[in-house]
Input
Amino acid sequence: MRHVLDLPLLYEQPDAETLLQILDDLIIRPTTFEGQTGESEDDTAVAEAGIPRYLTSIIRSTLGWIDDDAVKEQIWDQASKRISERSGRTAQPSFRRTFTIPNGDDAVEVQLLEPSMTGDNLGHKTWASAYLLAKRLPSLMESIPSFVRQSSSGSHDEGLLPRVLELGAGTGLTGLALSLLAPCIIHLTDLPEIVPNLALNVSLNKPAIQRRQPLSSASSFGLDWSDLPRNDVPVHEKYDLLIAGDPLYSPEHPALVVEAIAKYLRRTPGSRVVIELPLREAYAKEREAMTTGLEKKGILLIQSGEDRGYDDWGGGATEVLCWWGLWGWQAS
Output
């Protein structure tokens, strides 16, 4: 691994091609969500100490020895991006990354575009809970009746495919992973301002879905939990499975999530709900309120457990402990 002092010094007037190559070597790749950064481990890697100062020196330089103004702008732009990548998730520019979801001896890959985060659009970030829930799905499907039934029948009848609704899908990792893991009809939903990027990610993964699970279909639309349909949802529009990753981040959300689940979950013995939540101490009351609210609706906890993973909110890999639960209707 190289040191910052191994990089060409500006007083040596390195050519534009050399500077652009160095700036490419200094790209910080997104974390893998497995506790590793995406930094290169080959001979091009550079130790982080001193890099921000080096990048700042490039931005402050007139680069007077380079004649092409367009190339100068390109160098300054790339140096600015390298600084942004080192300033935490909220400062990062848009990027694309791949998540690998193990499935026994096999695995599926989900491609995601994550836009720059502006305002309060937390749905533009992929959260650890979504990744952990996606990894949890292969084992959970073995106990979700609609998937067990479809798998054992091997039927190609679209009417027998499990209907799945994802609440607060964000970038779509969990729902897209499910559509690649097993045949199903899945609708990924979030607030209207999140849906354009969600729809892009659905389109990005459609070729892989068609190759791997030709019976699956994935689509997205807006769903505001605070503005649900007043009338009951027709039976044929309800779902066998509802999934959600990290849906609680305000005191109002438990009641809203409960109402959405009760409205859209098909009232059959085999219908299920799966939710994964970070164990944030500040939201303990919200977690309890959601579980209590579901119980009052007759939706009881069947199975639960904990998963440990990593998030990149602060720019590095931060360990996160999550709790997951599987619910179903109380037997009448």
Summary: Residues 195-212 form the longest helix (18 residues).
